[in-house]
Write a structure and sequence with these properties.
Length: 129
Amino acid sequence: MQTISVSCQVFPSEDPEKVKLALLNIFPGAALEADERTIAAKPADMAHFGEQIRRQRILDTARSVMMKGRRGERSVFHLNKQAAYAGKISFVEEKTILGTIKVAIEAEDITAFIEMFAPQTVDGEEVRT
């Protein structure tokens, strides 16, 4: 069982509806909670996200970022809001000018979850061990 939390700040220069759309482009169907400065969601799953990282052929990058973000049984990583608005996944560092979409995943065995979700690849093909 895993728990997924997604959140991002909404800056005064941003249209909150466009920020919501960016979140929903990556996590469709997620129920959003918003206040003046933050939008948050708890998506039921990461199915669409998984499809996107395969479609964009960025499994190795996703795996690396998720592994790097591990702390205990949790992995935290950040996505570019503008790319998400366009329906694309782009991993970024936490500190960016326009902020990021923060994704936090908690699982009983986070390493096994990452292995299952974003397996290693060789020559672009998934390698399952």
